Amino acid sequence: MDHSPQRRTFLKALAALIDGAVALGVAIPGLRFFAEPLRRKRSGRDFSRVTPLDGVPEGRPIRMVVTADRYDAYVHYPPGPIGQVWLIRNADPPEPCPPPSQISNLKSEISKGGGPPGGEPRVRCMQTICPHLGCEIDYAADRNAFACPCHASEFDAVGRRKFGPSPRDMDKLECRVSPPDENGRRWIEVRYQEFRTGVAERRVIG
Amino acid sequence: MDWLTTQLSAGVRDDHPQRTRIVAGLRRSKSWLGCVGFLLAVEAATGLLLMTVYSPSTATAWGSVWYVQTQLPGGWFIRGLHHFASDAMIVVLVAALVHLLVTRSYGGASAVGWWAALLSTALVVAIALSGVLLPWDQHGYWGTTVRSNILARTPLLGPAFRTLLWGGAEMGDLTLARFFALHAFVLSGALACLLLFHRSILARVSVLRDSAGDRLRGALYRALIFGVAAGAAWFVCRHHGSTWLGAPADPRAADYPARPEWHALFLYQWLKYFEGATAEVVGAIVIPGAVVAALFLLPIAARFAPKQTVHRAAVGGCAALGVAILALSGLELLADRNPGDGAIDAIRAKHRRGESLSAADHAALRAREFNHKRVWASRTARRAVELAEKHGIPPTGALSLLAADPVTRGPVLFAANCADCHRFGGQDGTGNVPLDAPMSSDLKGFAGREWIRGLLADPMDERYFGRMRTPDGDPAHTRMSKWLAETREGIESDEARSAFETGLDAAAAYLEFESDHPGRFVNAADASNALKDMPEGERSIILHGREFFASTCNECHSYGGSRSGTIMAPEMLGYASVEWIALMIAEPDHEERYRTTGREHARMPRFADRLSDAERRLIAKWIRESRGTAMENEK
Hints:
The complex is a heterodimer.
Chain A: H1 5-34, H2 36-39, E1 47-52, E2 62-72, E3 75-89, H3 100-112, E4 123-127, E5 138-140, E6 145-147, E7 154-155, E8 161-163, E9 175-177, E10 187-191
Antiparallel strand pairs in A: 1-10, 2-3, 3-4, 5-6, 6-7, 7-8, 9-10
Chain B: H1 2-11, H2 19-51, H3 61-71, H4 75-102, H5 111-133, H6 138-151, H7 158-166, H8 173-204, H9 212-240, H10 265-271, H11 277-304, H12 307-335, H13 341-352, H14 359-391, H15 399-403, H16 406-417, H17 449-457, H18 479-490, H19 494-516, H20 524-531, H21 536-551, H22 578-586, H23 613-625
Helix pairs in contact in B: 2-4, 2-5, 2-8, 3-4, 4-5, 4-9, 5-6, 5-8, 10-12, 11-12, 16-23, 17-19, 19-21, 22-23
């Protein structure tokens, strides 16, 4: 038998190599297994019907549930609430903000409940999740303002940041009013999305 | 390990100039080690017991914890011990760190103990925070949401870290599974390994071995401390047990006022001073990270910089930190303190006079809102426990119990949809009194005998139609009041007057009966059947009321569609039953309700499209069932 030091070194190295290969062989699938959530992509949602247009009062924000089916890992939930939105009808100040001389006109327009004369009804749709740290934003009718119960961020009646720690305005969601359906009803349809919290710019999650 | 042992043994050589100090320092580290190790053993034992019941999924987690807490013999005690031992570990470790610091047991060979204590503290806090989510109640859910989102702000890796922690972009079953694994195995396993490792090193340093007397003394102290602690835990659990389980997590609740655990309140207050995305990263991550790093680097600083200076700076810094923590916690409690009814009444009066409110007023209103929401949250939590006891947990999870519960959903829906105009005992149903004056009736006790009798006495009272206005600003719904006034005026004799009022009394009793037994008078046999078991006096009053209704009220108010006169007032068949109220909410301008006639048209908006049928019925049921047992604002 050859007990030369070279041979010993070689065998040691070989053993280490095999150990390393085995370890990697377990660690790589293990890491992929554990980090699967990072690879999972959320498929973009299409517009979903939220409520008939007539259900949304003029000027006063209301919270509506967005209903759809969803997956949570291995569970496929039947259509149910996946999130909520704040809807405001015809209280949308045109952008950019009108000069003060026009504001009184706007106000009377809002109080009459009409959109722009002869125009389409305008609906503003906003995510209920606070852009600060992700709590659900409540509406304080007393102050005609949106307020987050966790860290007291406040937003004005159309969701613009008033004060508090939120880094941006409430997140607007794409929404539209459908043409009348067979019963003559028009529906508010929203493309539901969630956004990253705690950053100044709006970035979609997933 | 051998290397460490050699280093430590060398550090306490007989001829080492600071031998006494080093031996003392390492011994101090031994004492907290024993204490934390013991508490960890308590956690392991109670944790294993809890694991025999706990089930980490969104549908079952709350139910299994509820089962532990309320159904299993001694479950409240096991869970309470598990909770308190965790708090105790934090207290012991913070005390140990302070002790090590002021006795200078962090430099040289004692650094091992210092680092072990710091790492253990970090692990214990992480274990506690991962455990908070497991019951899947509101407290854990919203606290974890906020904390994870703070972590997600860590530059570069933050968002990925949150995704890995949650097992996806949203919290769900995988989040619970991961937190459970972290809490019960990964983090607590790491802590156990750390403690064992530290202990084995110290045990190898011969001068630290305890004498038999030391060990006996230690055992006695331990038994004493354990006795007192277990007794205290038993006492506290017994008296506060049920409050630790919040209502089941509701990802759609906008009324949960999340606040951190007592030991993190200072951080909550601290972050108020960092507004804006970048500033908040500094406040939440950079500065706390720097403080922790400074504590870790303390032994190294003590080695290379003048010891006296480092020690003074460290003690001074930690004292400042302690004062700051106390002050910030105090400020937080102060900011959230309930401003009291008097202050709020003054603000409300100011608002109603049309004056603008100051920043302090707004702060008071927010504090009021917080306290109100907290009271509501604990009421919901108690209700969830009640419902679980009554019905058991459905396979869809405990949240669906609350979703179908009029007692808690009714007031919330009422507050969000009806309380712009209506009131419920002066408040919005959940106990909050809105700043604006009501514009319509107060529905507390709606359609109860007393409520109806009040309406019949004076419909224009503020409790009924008194505050209602037509679009032109005139009083609305005046016809009934006019009719009553004319009829009362037309009565000549005192006898007839008292007969009329008695008739109204009876009509109120009859209408209350009608709302409890809708439609029984459509069929005479049915009515006598329903009246059969009533006391004689009661029965005759209701029958008299029915007669009075048929002869007098029926002129305008139809019953089953028929009326004797031409004026049309709301239908009284099944008046104030759940069906009746639900239709009233859906279509107040329905032809059986307040149809649009001329200028006195229905002021109430239709809710048919705004609220689902189920939601309308929840409000209706709550108004019906809470008759006379209104929920006053709890203190």
